[in-house]
Design goal:
The complex is a heterodimer of chains A (119) and B (107). With 119 residues, chain A is mostly beta strands. Chain A has strands at 3-6, 10-12, 18-25, 34-39, 45-51, 58-60, 68-73, 78-83, 92-99, 106-109, 113-117. In chain A, strand 7 and strand 8 form a beta hairpin. Chain A is globular, with a radius of gyration of 14 Å. With 107 residues, chain B is mainly beta. Chain B has no helices and 11 strands. Chain B has strands at residues 4-7, 10-12, 19-25, 34-39, 46-50, 54-55, 63-68, 71-76, 86-91, 98-99, 103-106. In chain B, a hairpin with a 2-residue loop joins strand 7 and strand 8 (71-76). The chains are: A mainly beta (119), B mainly beta (107). The interface between A and B is medium-sized, with 20 and 25 residues.
């Protein structure tokens, strides 16, 4: 069965960077784009970025451009999302999610990783 | 970017009643690329509807989506206790993908 398993919660100081991982299994890793979506406490959903696992192509949310980098390791079927120059506004649960190739929608989600930015 | 506005912000209903949730876009969504997700507390979102009106795998037929252009609706024909959650619409017709702010469906 398809699974996306994310790394554990992180506590970071302002100005630091965080790298969250998302290990995919149960399907052909290179067949589906992986997106990242975040949710601040008590708030709605915000799209962050995506990566095409087969060629490593990426696209980022304009407001995060320059601070976010998404990468992948095809040998371990793992996708990474790194966010730098953290501020308290980056405190959120970060989800990885798989884009279904036919419907173009997010059909499977990771369990979420809480990133807390606090001094 | 396309801004999605959901209404109402909170909807208070009882099990067995019908729920109607609205999502309005700031500009027309190409190919009706509009989806609805359900999110329960502490859980990841779950895809309900894609392409404005297509139910995702395993979603009961009490959920239906309609609309086109800039106005879309999610209808739950008969509420079950498990349906009380937050619902988000999302457009994927243009980049960046954007979500509405959510409608909380409460008892």
């Amino acid at each position: 069965q398809v699974q996306l398993v994310q790394s554990g919660a992180e506590l970071k100081k302002p100005g630091a960077s965080v790298k969250v991982s998302c290990k995919a299994s149960g399907y052909t890793f290179t067949s589906n784009f992986i997106h990242w979506v975040r949710q601040a406490p008590g708030q709605g959903l915000e799209w962050v970025a995506f990566i095409g696992p087969s060629d490593g192509s990426t696209k980022y949310a304009p407001r995060l451009q320059g601070r976010v980098t998404v990468s992948r390791d095809t040998s371990t079927t793992t996708v990474y999302m790194e966010l730098s120059s953290l501020t308290s506004e980056d405190t959120a649960v970060y989800y990885c999610t798989r884009r279904n190739g036919q419907t173009q929608n997010f059909d499977y989600w990771g369990q979420g990783t809480l990133v807390t930015v606090s001094s | 970017e396309i801004v999605l506005t959901q209404s109402p912000g909170t909807l208070s209903l009882s099990p067995g009643e019908r729920a109607t949730l609205s999502c309005r876009a700031s500009q027309s969504i190409s190919s009706n690329y509009l989806a609805w997700y359900q999110q329960k507390h502490g859980q990841a979102p779950r895809l309900l509807i894609y392409g404005a009106s297509n139910r995702a795998t395993g979603i009961p037929d009490t959920f239906s989506g309609s609309g086109s252009g800039t106005d879309f609706t999610l209808t739950i024909s008969r509420l079950e206790p498990d349906d009380f959650a937050i619902y988000y619409c999302q457009q994927y017709g243009s980049s960046p993908r954007t979500f509405g702010q959510g409608t909380k469906l409460e008892i």
